[in-house]
Write a structure and sequence with these properties.
By secondary structure, the protein is an alpha+beta fold. The protein folds into 2 domains: about 90 residues, SH3 type barrels (Roll); about 35 residues, no CATH class. About 25% of the residues lie in helices and about 30% in strands. The chain has 2 helices and 5 strands. A 5-stranded antiparallel beta sheet has the order 4-3-2-1-5, with no helix packed on it. A hairpin with a 4-residue loop joins strand 1 and strand 2. The protein is elongated. It starts with 19 loop residues before the first strand and ends with a helix. The relative contact order is 0.17. The N terminus is likely disordered. Pfam families: LSM12_LSM. InterPro entries: Lsm12-like, LSM12_LSM. This is LSM12 LSM domain-containing protein.
Length: about 120
């Protein structure tokens, strides 16, 4: 896919390099623009970063390649996963994990846990 705003007739996502800016139309009628982050060949999934306001947060779209009706090459930008510009807040991720773990296991001093244990010993 060299140069200009040519529509692709091949629709082969494997030809798209990381950083390509695309305008995509799906078989379901959706139209959007995004930057190629990666293509996973075994699952046939194209990962795109959608344009957003300048911020550390990024919107990613995972799209099965067989749902791409056609796309237009809009240009090429820098690598979206460049470690110098990509920000990952490990403290916030750890806090989200702690909250998820806290809500996924019952507290040992909760009434639900107590009655579940009581039921188990009395009736099982």
């Amino acid at each position: 896919m060299e140069g200009g705003n040519n529509s692709s007739s091949n629709n082969n996502p494997e030809e798209l390099a990381v950083g390509c800016l695309l305008s995509i139309r799906t078989t379901l009628g959706d139209e959007f623009e995004g930057q190629v982050v990666t293509f996973d060949r075994p699952s046939n999934i194209l990962v795109l970063q959608e344009p957003s306001k300048p911020s550390p947060r990024r919107n990613l779209r995972l799209l099965k390649a067989n749902y791409i009706k056609d796309f237009t090459f809009l240009g090429h930008a820098q690598d979206p996963l460049d470690p110098n510009t990509c920000f990952l807040d490990l403290t916030a991720l750890q806090q989200r994990e702690d909250v998820a773990v806290r809500y996924s296991f019952p507290s040992f001093n909760s009434p639900i846990f107590f009655f579940s244990l009581l039921y188990f010993f009395l009736f099982v």
